[in-house]
Amino acid sequence: MTSAATSTQWGPALDHADDATVAVRRSRAVQLDAVHAVVESGRWHIHGFRSPHAWLTTTTGEASGAVRTTLHLADRIQRMPIVKEHFADGILAESALRLLADAWHDDIADAFARDEELLACWAMTLAHRDFKMVLQTWRLHADPDGAERTAQEQFESRSLHLSELLDGMGQLDGLLDPEGFRIVQEAIRALAQRADGDERTAAQRRADALVAMAKLALAEFEPAVGTKRSRPKVVATIAYDDLVAATKGGILDTNSGRTTLTAQAVRRMACDAGIHRIITGPECTVLDYGRQTRTVSDTQFDALALRDHGCRILGCPIPPGGCDAHHSVHWADDGNTDLDDLVLVCWYHHHWLHEQHWSIQPLGAGHFILVDPDGNTHPLKPPLIGLALPPALPFEPFDDPGSQRNPDERTSH
Predict the structure, then answer these.
(1) Could you tell me which residues are beta bridge partners of residue 273?
(2) Residue 183: other Cβ atoms inside 10 A
């Protein structure tokens, strides 16, 4: 599972952690087979237990919920031979196995068997959040009637409770169907942005956002004033030669102060920002002063969000609201600001691309490829629009620093 390249990049400590993860998955696969064998043979009844659940709870000491999950997986994994093989090899995460187990049922058994190799490939190459969405989309194709029944059941179970406590505080508790939840979540996110000097916790900002939503509704649904996204407002001053060659650096002036930045940092911030540019020549002469331009429009960003659904680096779960629009060919290098040249990346990977000298090359129709400093290529997440299903991606276990690891676990290289 671990290659020589991985050892060089990440070191023996991370290699050891990777090997331990594989060992845990393999051990879990053995446990699921053993549990299935006991359940099918009825040996739990011979030993005086009323049910498989009672037997497994007693013998493992696990909580009831964990036991139900184990019994469920032990049964379903036997119906998914390809998935079972990958899990036993330690290369498929249990969280993905749980999604697949929940997706399988008798009504779509034939479709599942037909597409199981593709489903397993998606499970091993896509981030959990992306795979969950792709699997839901696949179920719409495989069993549209079942998906409609599920959606209606979820909608019928919606509820909201508001209770006033003894001290006058209010408590809210509710359950929303997926569509309603996403709408409310996005509205709260839009009104809960953190400003400079804001000392509220995230939970407090969300609570205040909910009150703000109520005030907007009581005011006859007047739209909130402001832009859809909060972009940095900057004045970047850099020498022309440094801008083109991406060398040395420049000065960045904002409403909060003044600082020096590398040329790569200036280029990165200029990818998706409202900027004034001041390009200087020898002896600080001003060669060009450009008026403020928004390099990526709100309409373009909305289209990117619908196409990319977040950071396009494999394994990164950051949604569109936490991403920048990155130019595959920077506008300073005569690149175009159009959708085929733009790709969403999170703050971490945007910094990583510019500062660590990786690049993204467009392939057309919203497809891109990642190129490392040595010229090696690596796949990016495919574009996903509407109900379209992505192609199978080659599985590269832990070999690409942008493909499998959580961004918080990565280090510069």
Answers:
(1) none
(2) 11
CB burial of residue 136 (10 Å; 0-12, 13-18, 19+): middle
Q: Work out the pLDDT band at 29, boundaries 50, 70, 90.
A: very high
- Distance CA(243)–CA(262), nearest Å, equals 10
Q: 70 pLDDT exceeds 90?
A: yes
SS3 94: helix
Residue type for 88, please?
Answer: A
Which SS3 state, helix, strand or coil, does residue 342 take?
Answer: strand
- What are the distances in angstroms from CA 197 to CA 25, 208, 212, 259? 45, 16, 20, 19
- DSSP per residue, 100-111: HHHH--GGGHHH
pLDDT for residue 409: 38
* CB 255, CB 247: distance < 8 Å: no
294 — phi, psi (to 5°)?
Answer: -95, 110
Contact status, residue 317 vs residue 309, Cβ threshold 8 Å: no
- Model confidence band, residue 183 (pLDDT cutoffs 50, 70, 90): confident
pLDDT tens digit sequence for 341-377: 899 998 778 878 877 788 999 988 889 999 999 999 9
Count CB-CB contacts under 10 A for residue 30: 10
Number of Cα atoms under 13 Å in the Cβ half of residue 373: 9
Determine the average pLDDT of the residues in 23-49: 93
Q: Of 359, 343, 272, 353, which Cα lies nearest the Cα of 308?
A: 343
Share of the chain above pLDDT 70, in %: 68
Per the listing, tokens 């400079």 go with: 196
